[in-house]
Amino acid sequence: MNQIFTYVSRQLAGTTIILTMVMSGVIWLFVSVKAVESIINRGLSLKLFFLLTSLQLPNFLAQIIPIAFFIAVLFVYGRLVSDREIVVLRAAGMSPLSLAAPVIVLGLMFTLIGYALSLYATPSSYQKIPAIAVGHPI
Questions:
Q1: Residue 134, SS3?
Q2: What is the pLDDT of residue 131?
Q3: Which residues contact 68 (CB under 8 A, 6 or more apart)?
Q4: Which of 14, 58, 81, 83 places its Cα 20 to 30 Å from the Cα of 118?
Q5: Taking the complete model, does pTM exceed 0.90, yes or no?
Q6: How far apart are CA 136 and CA 30, in angstroms?
Q7: What are the backbone dihedrals phi and psi of residue 10, each rounded to the nearest 5 degrees, phi first?
Q8: Predicted confidence (pLDDT) per residue in 55-65, tens digit
Q9: Which domain holds residue 41?
Q10: Number of other CB atoms surrounding residue 45 within 10 Å
């Protein structure tokens, strides 16, 4: 049963990471479109642009990771159901709790990551923004 836990956990983690990267890219694109005005009109350097947009990343990740994990759970377990793997695992004697164990463990891990991003990384990055922007009209 440990191999099944590892298999489902890898599927969930991989899908969550890919979805997080894609969704972060989309949100970064929206942020960068707003910041292009500052680059063109106010003469900000490209390095400063990337620095300021990367400092907003912890806040975005704290909001994106739960959504990406939810979509990954739906996708992975939907695929397991459509491939009849859930039926085979239930016939092999796995309980519903043991089928849900990878989701529970990864959900707790992503919750801790979200707490760390919300409580430490986001406030720290937002404190650095004014210090970086000194001397640059934003």
A1: coil
A2: 65
A3: 16, 19, 20, 23
A4: 14
A5: no
A6: 22
A7: -65, -40
A8: 888 989 999 99
A9: 2-133
A10: 10
